[in-house]
Amino acid sequence: MSGADGLALAGCAAALGLIVVAIVAGRLPPFLAIVLGAGAFVGIDGMAIEKSVKAFTSGAGTIFGDVGLVIALGAMLGALMTTSGAADRVVQAMLGRVGDRAMPWAIAGCAMLVGLPLFFEVGLVVMLPIILSLSRQSGRPVMALALPALAGMTVLHALLPPHPGPLIGVSVLHADLGLTMLLGGVVAVPAVTLAGPLYARLVAPRIGAVTPPEAAASSVHAPAAGTGDAVPALWASLTILLLPVVLMLGRTLARLGLAHDGAAAGVLEAVGEPVLAMVITVIAAVVLLFWARGRGGVRLGETMEHALAPIAGLLMTIGAGGGLKGVLLAGGLAGVIGRLAAQAAVPPVLLAWGIAVCLRQAIGSATVATVTTAGLIAPLLLHPAHPDPQEALHASLLVLAIGAGSVFFCHVNDAGFWMVRGFFGLDLRQTVLSWSVLQTIVSVVGLAGAWLIWIAV
């Protein structure tokens, strides 16, 4: 190893260490911690200040353009779905005719469907009153129904674009979005099955009866559609839920099965581009869920604007992560990692998962773990901008491995841990036994699925 390689590795280690310390001990926001980490790398690697600033801003701008707009539009879509009552309409329709034995499976599927356009926290708020109501009606323990829903939303958060984590991985690794969605769907099925209904059957009796606090229960029982408003039609609600997925998958299917110079392929390629697909879906939601029902005006605009404020920190963190990636690559880390990976016996998919796990355990943020790991793993792809079919497959599998690693054993340094604990009235042991272990199952099954596809193809 040359001296320059050693400096690059030392700078990378110092950057990651400083990020962890700044977030955990210094209580700094992840955005600022990542900026400081990038500065530490620049100082040790000896990069020129002008070069490093350009690399940081270029990396941040790229990922803002690729991911930030989609996440902002997704936040608007989620707000439209919940405010109009469309999300609740789909939940009630799916669960209305389900038998008692199939209830946990139906809740898991329902959480995945409803959670497609929603952030995890919003999805949990939507599902919680349904879970509590079904628990009272059926006599089942609350956690026997809550765990399948939590598993469905966790799998979405970890493995399926257009959720932020996988979408960041797709952008940084230049993976094919549709292929990643297809592979993520394949891996999601066993992950939800094992972490949801099957694990709930095993662990719910050990957790015992829980009583969600009245404040938490009442706060999520407010009617989503507004006083006196009828919920949207089921067909309209399902159309809005599935439209972005259909558009994005259509883009990939067009690439695989249609002539590239044909009109149909051109249309599907255009409307399946993530930003345009989300714009089309948001406009369709406005038309079908509000204007067609005689609703709109000031309330519609406020709903969409208010959806953006909570994600400002997330967008800044994602941008800083893209900037850190740009600095690391400009500092020569790409060649170093590529040479070390070629000499190492660890498969790239396992390496990506392991790095994400370590960062998640130290920092407690799946987003920071994802964006940082993706930047470190990107050099392993030889031609990220124009991959051959096998490398395109590998890029998608690395996205899944990183996403799986980013949800490994959520514990006390993550806000989601305390959110689940508070909403369901759990003590610390019960939260670890339910939520932390559930996420670990999703993580391990996600890795196993990605690894098996990696070695089989």
Automatic annotation (TrEMBL):
Membrane-spanning intervals of the chain: 7-25, 31-49, 61-82, 102-130, 142-160, 180-200, 233-254, 274-292, 313-334, 340-359, 366-386, 392-412, 432-456
GO cellular component terms given for this protein: plasma membrane
InterPro entries: Glcn_transporter
UniProt keyword annotations, A-Z: Cell membrane, Membrane, Transmembrane, Transmembrane helix, Transport
GO molecular function list: gluconate transmembrane transporter activity
Subcellular location: Cell membrane
Main location: membrane
Topology of this chain in the membrane: Multi-pass membrane protein
The family this protein is said to belong to: Belongs to the GntP permease family.
Name of the protein: GntP family gluconate:H+ symporter
